Amino acid sequence: MIFNWRDIKNPAAGGAERYIHELAKRLTIDSKVTLFTPEFKGCKDREIIDGVEVVRKGGRYTVYIEALKMYQRKFKGKYDLVIDSINTVPFFTPLFVKEPRLTIFYQMSKEFWLKSFKFPFNIIGYLIEPWYLRLYKKEKVITISESSREDLENLGFQDIEIVNPGIDVKPLNKNLKKEKDLTLISFSRLVKPKRIDHVIRAFEIINRNIPKSKLWILSDGPGKDDLKDLVKELGLENSVEFFGFVDEKKKIELIHRSHYHLFTSVREGWGIVVVEAALNGTPTIGYDVPGIRDSVSKMGGFLVGEDYEELAKKVIELSDSDSSSSNKINIDRIRDFDWNKIYKDFKGIVDESVS
Known about the structure:
Helix content: 25-40%
Shape: globular
Number of domains: 2
CATH superfamily of the largest domain: Glycogen Phosphorylase B
Number of strands: 14
Distance between the termini: 16 Å
Largest sheet: 8 strands, mixed
CATH class of the largest domain: Alpha Beta
Number of helices: 12
């Protein structure tokens, strides 16, 4: 049984949902797996996705009480393991689940509270997060990066394992070439904590110095209109292109053709987009914040301070150099992030938790 605040079909699904889905569907090889998650517009109450039974009940805020009610009525005593997947607000399973438990923790939300919620809820969430997380400090926990493990250790957690997110490792398409002119890409969800406005402001400086440069923005989100207004305000309409959501084949093609991936989030659990970019021959230039620093340190790339002018300066500096951008990619590490290898690590912890 897995409690998670979204499923893979939710329009707002991101890296955490991909992580849960890839592991859960592999668990179905020899286990029954049920994922309990909130409803969204147009969804089914129940469906099977890649072998995983998805049960949806409640909304963004009511899903937690619905999880408790559903557990008491339907799930209690029927599962060998209950997994509480924490992304911002947990399901508080230590208070009511009697079966063996496992916790998946992605990241401290911290700045996400301040960027994603309105006053006073942003301040309240920011202040109480360390307190409600301490409820889990005696639980067995899987987290996804060294930065997140350090945050948990600072709260008194002791039983922590790191299982990084994975990717579908496929050979590079050698027929695809980099664009002739400097091309930058961003493919994070268009929400405030990802700070895509920093990417655009950095690009304005880059474009002044390298006039034929281009910026490609993939994905979508509630911040899209504001970002388009910023592009217009800065006079970049002819140099910035919004692609919205694209299928996997198109995404890979665009990453292949780009020279650098810009990553400006306030923090991440890990930053799987860094690995995806590296797999496709494109190094990341990212902010030196938790999660991003972990993935860049393993995959190669460049870290800068949380300042768009510094980001722009680094891009210009690299573009002026003679060295190949791919020299900064640690290509030998990519196979460490194959989903099937990641799953073996995860399955070992699951088996240990129910033994």
